[in-house]
């Protein structure tokens, strides 16, 4: 009683902490603290969306009228560009004239947009600071680019990561389900008792191998294999991740499906056989339908493991945060992103919080999957009685 | 010629011998009751007739069983075809977790009948044969589990009849049922006798007396006595048979 209460409280606290930290990303501006975005004082633009700023600095937007301003070409200015306009003497020996010169440059360039640290802001600055909107949840989810440390604006699009996660997991289940099902059928219906007594513990043992070992195996065996078979420049692809995850999900799928199949009452199997059904017809028409809920539960739990898996995937998928169009392209998953980047993210910063937000997304995905297991098993146990 | 002929059957579960030199033959369109105390081998014998014991690991059989003159344990016997000809009804009603209709259609479908008209026709005939049609005709799509135990057992008989066997094995078909359901099944057995050769295992002496033409008494894996039911129940030749029938043991 006490221990279960303690466990529940801990779980709730972890989830609460996760969401509090994760929500922080939506309360901050995606511009690094202590930096300014500045335009000419006569520029009518007051506010910009993060994506607009990005497009400006990527030179996809080149004229202010595209943003509803005057017909004026946009002139980009970053701190380091100052040396193009002023000589070292003008800036002073210790850059003491730096703020004044930036001010001067901004004042005389009507189309300017300047990005610099606020310590270079002159006392009576003549430019106008731009407001940057906060990241919206929709932008966070649908953004395709993940550059959380980009300048001037961090890009926090998690779409590629979600796609990567789902792609790899989907591929894994596609590989693991038929193999797992076949193995479960063999173990429960065809194998002799002695064979099963040897094989079953071996398969269960597979579940106990550390995932980093699977990752290592994938890196050494599967990655070069894929590279050679498909003639790819690199073997670190979504497919490699799927194969490694499929191997990892197999023990779950096999054990749970096999247990479910073995609960098929003998009376059902005998009834089928007594009607002249062959062994295979009985497996196909009686055993599998009867254990369908168990098989589904096994498959979903297998996916659950695949989605949350970090280390093995991190090692074999190539970790390119781009939306994958085939399984033969490198991709990056949510857990791998968190594991790879959390060590480098400043505590409490935007990047740090965005990783927590990723964790929230992952939590929601696995939570939905577990709810599905509950739903499937409940619905079927209801049907049987 | 006998419909079912078994000669010198010895059967072993691992080291344990369950049947000792049993020879037993049954005529076409008769009901044979197998009686005897628990563990006497009567169910084991019954399950040999459709090779149901094949499912159990580590068993051994010697002797021959001929059905319609064919050795059913010969190497070239198709077990699925044998079971199609030798239907079986089990101790507990065991409908599939499917609809009433699908339960009866199952045997037809696994035997390769795809014509929906034929399936429907046979399903209806079979359900009518077991006098269940009036009770289920409006709920054929409902789950078979919604029926009462007696109805379920009659459905299981209908399911066995649908594939048109010539022999029907019944392993204590009424032991899980109430008296009214039991009498319905007994009536049914009486009617089915015209078309099928029936072998029924029962613990219920009165039932054996009511439904069967011949009765075989098993004890400790041996066939003690096999005769007309009337003879067995009125003047058995063996002392053990008399003791069992009069309730002195078992």
Walk me through the structure.
Chain B: Residues 4-245 form the ABC transporter domain. Chain B: Part of the ABC transporter complex PstSACB involved in phosphate import. Responsible for energy coupling to the transport system. Chain B: It is a peripheral membrane protein. Chain B: Its main location: membrane. The complex is a heterodimer of chains A (385) and B (250). Chain A is built from 16 helices and 8 strands. Chain A has 385 residues and is α/β, with parallel strands linked by helices. In chain A, strand 7 (146-147) and strand 8 form a beta hairpin. In chain B, 36% of the residues lie in helices and 26% in strands. In chain B, the strands form 2 sheets. In chain B, strands 6-7-8-3-9-10 form a 6-stranded mixed beta sheet, with helices on both faces. A 4-stranded antiparallel beta sheet of chain B has the order 2-1-4-5, covered by helices on one side. Chain B is built from 10 helices and 10 strands. Chain B is of the alpha/beta class and 250 residues long.
List keywords for this structure.
heterodimer, A: 385 residues, alpha/beta, MetI-like fold, 2 domains, 4-stranded mixed beta sheet, two-stranded parallel sheet, 8 strands, 6% strand, elongated, B: 250 residues, Rossmann fold, 4-stranded antiparallel beta sheet, 10 helices, 10 strands, 36% helix, globular
Overall pLDDT metric of chain B: 90
Task: Outline the biggest β-sheet of chain B.
Answer: 6 strands, mixed
- Terminal Cα span of chain B: 34 Å
Oligomer: heterodimer
> Can you tell me the overall shape of chain B?
globular
Q: Tell me the number of helical segments of chain A per DSSP (H or I, 4 or more residues long).
A: 16
Domain module tally of chain A? 2
Work out the number of β strands of chain B: 10
- Across the major sheet of chain B, the strand order is 6-7-8-3-9-10
N-to-C series of helices and strands of chain A: HEEHEHHHEEEHEEHHHHHHHHHH
Please, how many helices of chain B? 10
Question: What's the CATH C level of the largest domain in chain A?
Answer: Mainly Alpha
Low-confidence stretches of chain B: none
């Amino acid at each position: 009683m006490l221990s279960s209460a303690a466990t529940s409280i801990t779980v709730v606290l972890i989830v609460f902490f996760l969401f509090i930290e994760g929500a922080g990303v939506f309360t901050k501006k995606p511009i690094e603290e202590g930096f300014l975005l500045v335009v000419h004082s006569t520029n009518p633009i007051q506010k910009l969306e993060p994506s607009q700023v990005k497009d400006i600095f990527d030179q996809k937007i080149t004229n202010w009228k595209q943003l509803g301003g005057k017909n004026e070409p946009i002139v980009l200015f970053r701190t380091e560009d100052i040396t193009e306009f002023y000589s070292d003497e003008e800036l002073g020996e210790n850059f003491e004239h730096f703020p004044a010169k930036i001010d001067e440059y901004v004042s005389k360039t009507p189309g300017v947009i300047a990005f610099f640290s606020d310590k270079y802001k002159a006392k009576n600055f003549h430019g106008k600071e731009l407001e940057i909107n906060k990241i919206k949840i929709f932008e966070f989810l649908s953004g395709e680019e993940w550059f959380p440390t980009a300048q001037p604006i961090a890009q926090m699009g998690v779409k590629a990561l979600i796609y990567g996660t789902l792609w790899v997991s989907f591929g894994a289940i596609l590989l693991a389900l038929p193999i797992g099902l076949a193995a479960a059928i063999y173990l429960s219906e065809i194998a002799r008792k002695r064979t099963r007594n040897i094989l079953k513990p071996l398969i269960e043992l597979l579940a106990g191998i550390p995932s980093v070992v699977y990752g290592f195996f994938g890196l050494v065996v599967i990655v070069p294999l894929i590279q050679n078979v498909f003639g790819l420049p690199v073997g670190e692809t979504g497919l490699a991740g799927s194969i490694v995850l499929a191997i990892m999900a197999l023990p779950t799928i096999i054990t749970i499906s096999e247990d479910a199949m073995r609960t098929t009452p003998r009376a059902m199997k005998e009834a089928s056989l007594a009607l002249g059904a062959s062994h295979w017809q009985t497996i196909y028409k009686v055993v599998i339908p009867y254990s369908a809920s168990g098989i589904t539960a096994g498959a979903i739990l297998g996916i659950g493991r695949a989605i949350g898996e970090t280390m093995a995937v991190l090692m074999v998928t190539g970790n390119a945060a781009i939306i994958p169009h085939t399984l033969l392209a490198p991709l990056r998953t949510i857990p791998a992103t968190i594991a790879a980047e959390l060590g480098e993210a400043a505590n409490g910063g935007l990047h740090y919080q965005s990783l927590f937000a990723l964790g929230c997304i992952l939590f929601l995905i696995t939570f939905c999957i577990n709810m599905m297991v509950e739903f499937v098993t409940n619905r079927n146990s209801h049907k049987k009685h | 010629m006998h419909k079912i002929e078994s000669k010198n059957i010895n059967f072993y579960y691992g080291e344990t011998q369950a049947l000792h030199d049993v020879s037993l033959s049954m005529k076409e369109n008769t009901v044979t009751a197998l009686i005897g105390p628990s563990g006497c081998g009567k169910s084991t014998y019954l399950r040999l007739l459709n090779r149901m014991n094949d499912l159990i690991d580590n068993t051994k059989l010697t002797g021959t069983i001929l059905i319609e003159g064919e050795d059913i344990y010969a190497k070239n016997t198709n077990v699925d075809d044998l079971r199609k000809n030798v239907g079986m009804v089990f101790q507990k009603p065991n409908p599939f977790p499917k609809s009433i209709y699908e339960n009866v259609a199952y045997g037809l479908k696994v035997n390769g009948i795809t014509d929906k008209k034929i399936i429907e026709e046979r399903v209806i005939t079979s359900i009518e044969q077991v006098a269940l049609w009036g009770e289920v005709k409006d709920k054929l799509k409902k789950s078979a589990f919604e029926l009462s135990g007696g109805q379920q057992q009659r459905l299981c008989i209908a399911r066995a009849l649908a594939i048109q066997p010539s022999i029907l094995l019944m392993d204590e078909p009424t032991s899980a049922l109430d008296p009214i359901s039991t009498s319905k099944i007994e009536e049914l057995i009486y009617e089915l006798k015209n078309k099928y050769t029936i072998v029924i295992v029962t613990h219920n002496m009165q039932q054996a007396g009511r439904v069967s033409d011949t009765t075989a008494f098993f004890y400790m894996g041996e066939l003690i006595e096999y005769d007309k039911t009337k003879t067995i129940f009125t003047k058995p030749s063996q002392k053990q048979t008399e003791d069992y029938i009069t309730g002195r043991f078992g």
